[in-house]
Amino acid sequence: MGAISITRVQILLLLELNLASAGITFPSKYFLRILQLQATHNPPPTFSPTLFRSRRKVLFFFPQISGSPFKGHSKNQNPICEFHRDLGTIKRAMLGAVQLGLLAACVVLFVPMGMAGWHLSRNKVLFFSGALFITLAVGVHLTPYFPSVSDFVTSVSSSSVNVVVDDRDSCVSLLHEIVWEVRPRVFDFDPMNNNSVNYEKSWSWKRSGSVESCEFQRLNRHDVSVLLNGSWVVVAGDSQARIFALSLLSLVLDSEGMESVKGSLFKRHSDYHTEVDEMGMVLDFMWAPYVTNLTSLVAGFKRNRVYPDLLVMGSGLWHMLHITNASDYGVSLGVLRSSVTSLLPVSSEFGNEESMAVRSPHLFWLGMPTLVNSMLNTAEKREKMTDLVREEYEREVKRSGMLRQFEGPLHLLDIGSLSWNCGIRCTDDGMHYDGVVYEAGVHVMLNALLIESHQKI
């Protein structure tokens, strides 16, 4: 804290010296009084040399400083507020200083040039050399009164960054613009069997100008290996999350590897861990059927100070079936949101003084699928998991503020819209959909990662 205070005093004293050189006097006690008030009511943040360099002109036009000495103030008065009353005086003084500087520059520039032209008219090289030298000298002295080139470039680049951010956000909102083609199998269609296996499904992003401009990609095994190389991926939730994890693994494993995964990953109500040595990726599936389980998982990350690179979470179907209380579900989501928000930005602390910044995980929320009530396989499910109840649960997700579109920390993987557009030919039990639906969700996630990290593969 002592080093920070000294640095701020030095900055303000340098500011005083610069202003004094322009003919404007600001006693040091003003600055010390401001620092005292800031230390009492608003402790100063950590000093950032980069931030200071990018804002050095802001310090020069410090608006809270008066050009006249303090006359004293009562205990209910704020000296900083008193400074604002003299802002007009400061502006007029600054304008006068600039005008005086311009006048002096004209005298310094044109008088010597005229004299040089009078005496050196026969030597044009010497004349123009002298004129160039004088012009450069005047330019150096006038430079502090005008915005620097670096500030101009910074402002232009910041404007372009804003445009890029806007384009990135618009592309994220278009990630679920997916169309489906579902048609009967040509050779092995069984008219006596209406299961989803009788139908071939394929998907693609909608062919429209706005979607095509985003250049979404269906990534192959090599692309996914590059994108997720060395990553720790955690997928947590219910059976929907389990199928999602399987779809992700299908993009990085061969057929032999997938056969061994299916037997282990689909053990009932259990966790699963695997490592893909070829790309250094580690994937953990965490069985967490309730939101409270997800909250405990996030709390464990924070407690152990170990965070995944990619975290996909989703829960709701078990709560809908066994508790059937949308309001209670919303309360649990609020607690989860607070726990997740505490991870951002992530920092690891060492002792009492040292700290080291850690990259924040990429966070996704796996939405609930569309429920086809008539196809649910038990009477209890058909009674409790109705369209009306599902809408109430979806409403609580939006109200909780968990999703990015509502200023939350998690991107939505909208399995609800993907399953709805695929239709009833993509499910056998009205709840769990064919792998192609979750495959589309995986590609939505991967493209969101590309957009967030400004990458193209």
UniProtKB/TrEMBL annotation:
Show which residues constitute the signal peptide. 1-22
Where is it mainly found?
Answer: membrane
Q: Name one GO cellular component term.
A: Golgi apparatus
**What taxonomic classification does the UniProt entry list for its organism?**
Eukaryota, Viridiplantae, Streptophyta, Embryophyta, Tracheophyta
Give GO MF terms, alphabetically.
acetyltransferase activity
Q: What are the record keywords, sorted? A: Membrane, Signal, Transmembrane, Transmembrane helix
A Gene Ontology annotation in the biological process aspect, one of them, is: xylan biosynthetic process
Q: Where are the transmembrane segments?
A: 93-113, 125-146
What's the superkingdom here?
Answer: Eukaryota
Compartments reported by the entry: Membrane
The name this protein carries in UniProt is: Uncharacterized protein LOC106763920
